Amino acid sequence: MKNIIEKRIQAMKTAHASNKIEGIDIGDEAFNAMLERAKAPISNQEFAFQEISRVYAEHGLVYVK
């Protein structure tokens, strides 16, 4: 699980850097919060589901797999 989490965090850092280059920035505070959530010992699929669900909830919607 540790290896999965490390790879997940590295992929997120790479994507975040790429997004910044392209002018898309969610902000350091939001990104750091996402990195903390990424440390949860869950599968990548479950992590993605939780993150998408969180974004939907911010807009009053419910994400369904």
Q: How would you sum up this structure in a few lines?
A:
The chain is mainly alpha-helical. Helix content is 71%, strand content 0%.
Give the strand tally. 0
Largest pleated sheet: none
> What best-fitting shape do the alpha-carbon axes yield?
globular
Sequence of secondary-structure elements = HHH
What is the share of helical residues?
over 70%
Integer-rounded radius of gyration: 12 Å
Plain-language structure description:
With about 60 residues, the chain is an all-alpha fold. The chain is about 70% helix and about 0% strand. The longest helix has 20 residues, at about 1-20.
List the helices and strands and how they pair.
Layout: H1 2-21, H2 28-38, H3 44-58
Task: Provide the descriptors you would attach to this structure in a database record.
about 60 residues, single chain, mainly alpha
